Amino acid sequence: MYRNWLFFILMVDLTAAGCAVEVIDDIIADKGVTYCSMGVDGSGDEASEDTTASSTFVPECSTGSTAPATTTGEGGESSSTGEGTTSETTGHVPMCGDGVVEGEETCDDMNDIPDDGCKACARDSIIFITSERYRGDINGLDGADQRCRMLAAIAGLQRFETFRAWLSTGEVAAADRLLQSQGRYVLVNGLVVAENWDGLVSGTLLHPIDVDEFSQTQDYRAWTGTLFDGQPAFGSEFCNGWTTFSGDFMGGNGFSSVVDATWSFVENINCNFDLHLYCIEQ
Predict the structure, then answer these.
(1) CATH code that applies to domain 124-280
(2) pLDDT score at 107
(3) What's the rounded mean pLDDT across residues 275-280?
(4) What is the pTM of this model?
(5) Which among 91, 158, 161, 255 has most CB atoms closer than 10 A?
(6) How far is CA 71 from CA 11, 43, 74, in A?
């Protein structure tokens, strides 16, 4: 029916083409008709590739209603001729506190309360020491990550599938395989370990990583093979890539009860010892 209207209006008087276009636009906007552009410019002629004049175009195959027409001015600025906001070619700039997660933001809760899991538009990341202990044969880095995820899932932690172990090999540094978040690193009980990644690798923590996924205290050592700054502890044999519990190999470890650099590395010991792992949400 709408097509018949359009055809009738166009045929009434070619000299009134301008008025007809306005009527057609009103009908489309009022009825929400699907309108597909056929590559026609404002004059009604087929648009050429080298056309430089500013014209009003209808987006190809827009549905529901016609999008506001746009005009191009000097400097390449684009402004809406209908309702809405004006956009610049530089694009929208993300704003912390507007409730929209965008850009490099990982959260945006529209407030400045730090203890609700979102600080300066960066999410808190949970860090825990495992409730279980393992010998050096943990099936490599992937096996360690899987253990972290399994324990996080059992404990009912959100985003359990993102957890990874604070663990290095001679070829791969923990710092290179973990997200270096600008958000806080917190224990399951909410205590803050570090304000951000820089704080985590500074050599001084705000609180020991001595709480497991169930919020129980674990005052013991953890396999790391990693210096406090996230780099491999060279001189360590990394338990042969964390694939053996043989006493012939050594692995680096740290103390879970301290806040100085020895939380991550204190010495190398035989791989047949049972130690924890540190797990961090990504």
Answers:
(1) 3.10.100.10
(2) 80
(3) 98
(4) 0.64
(5) 255
(6) 28, 15, 10
Q: What is the pLDDT of residues 65-118, one digit of tens each?
A: 333 334 344 443 333 334 443 334 456 777 887 888 887 777 887 888 767 778
Structure tokens at 135: 């010998």
Total residue count of the chain as it appears in this document: 282
Q: Where are the domains of the chain?
A: 2-80, 124-280
User: From the centroid of its chain, how far is CA 60?
Assistant: 32
Dump pLDDT digits (tens) for 7-39.
Answer: 343 343 434 434 433 443 453 344 443 333 333
